[in-house]
Every structure is written in structure tokens, then in C-alpha cells.
């Protein structure tokens, strides 16, 4: 059947094919999917729309919110085969045939390790020169970090040793550069953090 929605409303289950354009869902969405028998669904509750090669759902300011797989959404949310959308008491399951849309798998980046405030300060100081320009700029030296943080070089080295362990950087070669790259890639340090000084 391609890509479609399974609507599990109090009145029963029905299938609605998704084609080219956006599909509004609510008690009175005009030409969209009408859910009359659920008093917890807003008049114009949500919209399912194509984006690129896939589909997304977006809440339209409904009173009771829109949920995807149990989590309330506050912005447009990409849909994957089998995702459950909740609109009030109505359950909507997104179905798509393999190969139809959005079938490539994105590998998640490793999560950021738990850091102390001082370890995070050391990472920010380490990454600060990267904002100064130059594609191959080196991160801060131990001496520069110690000066910025007003601590001893030994204290910075100790924090760096903990950070190498937490980020699993056991190889001794170019660890500061790799640590700076990991901190930026995992979102532990942002451009806004580096700019604050």
C-alpha cells in the first residue's frame, strides 16, 4: 500500500494512504482526516506532511498536544515505520513499505560523558583557539589553559587525564586535538561556549 496511517479511533481502525501533500488531522480539518468520535482531539490538531524523502508530523497548537512514541512533540518530528502518534485518545500508527521513504539508518553519535563543572571549563579552554580562525588551528596548550583558568598546570593535566578516560582516548598521539574534536562533535562544547570569555 506504500505509505499510510492506521487510525485507531474509538469507532474502529481505518487506513488512510499518504500521497503527495500534507494531511491535516482533527475534528474538522477540512479535506484532511476527520476524527469525530474523540472529544480530546482539537478541531485542527496536527498535520502529517512530506519532507524530502520522508514524512513528518507537527502539532497545530492543539489543546491536548501531539505525542510520538509517548513523547510530546514541540516541533516538527520525523516519522519512521511503526511510529505511534497520539492525538488525544486516538492512536495513529505510521506505516511505510521498506524502500519507500527514509530507509537509511543514521548511526547515533556516542553520548557525552558525565563531566564535572571544572572538567567542562577545561574543555572550553582547550577548544577556545578553534574559534580564532584557521582551519588547522591547534587547541590550547596546558600552560594556556592553566593561565585562563587560574590553576596550576598540574591541575590541568589531572583534569585532562580524567577527560581522556571519560572520552576513551587511550592512544597518546595527538590526544588534545582528538579531545577537542570529540568535545565539539558530541555537543559538550558549543561555539557559544567558546565565544564567552
Keywords:
single chain; alpha+beta; 197 residues; five-stranded mixed beta sheet; 5 helices
Description of the structure:
The protein is an alpha+beta fold and 197 residues long. The chain has five helices and eleven strands, in the order βββββββββββααααα. The chain has a six-stranded antiparallel β-sheet, with no helix packed on it. The protein has a five-stranded mixed β-sheet with strand order 4-3-5-6-9, with no helix packed on it.
Question: Topology of this structure?
Answer:
Layout: E1 3-9, E2 12-17, E3 23-26, E4 33-34, E5 46-51, E6 54-59, E7 66-68, E8 71-72, E9 77-78, E10 84-87, E11 90-96, H1 117-127, H2 142-149, H3 153-166, H4 175-185, H5 191-195
Parallel strand pairs: 3-4
Antiparallel strand pairs: 1-2, 1-11, 3-5, 5-6, 6-9, 7-8, 7-10, 10-11
Helix pairs in contact: 1-2, 1-3, 2-3
What gross morphology would you assign?
Answer: elongated
Let me know the number of strands: 11
Q: How is the largest sheet built, in terms of strand order?
A: 2-1-11-10-7-8
Q: Which percent band covers the strand fraction?
A: 15-25%
Give the % helix.
10-25%
- Radius of gyration of CA atoms, rounded to a whole number: 25 Å
The SS-based structural class is alpha+beta
Mean pLDDT across all amino acids: 86
Q: What string gives the helices and strands in order?
A: EEEEEEEEEEEHHHHH
- The number of helical runs is 5
Q: What low-confidence regions span 5 or more consecutive residues with pLDDT below 50?
A: none
Please give the largest β-sheet.
Answer: 6 strands, antiparallel
* N→C terminal distance: 57 Å
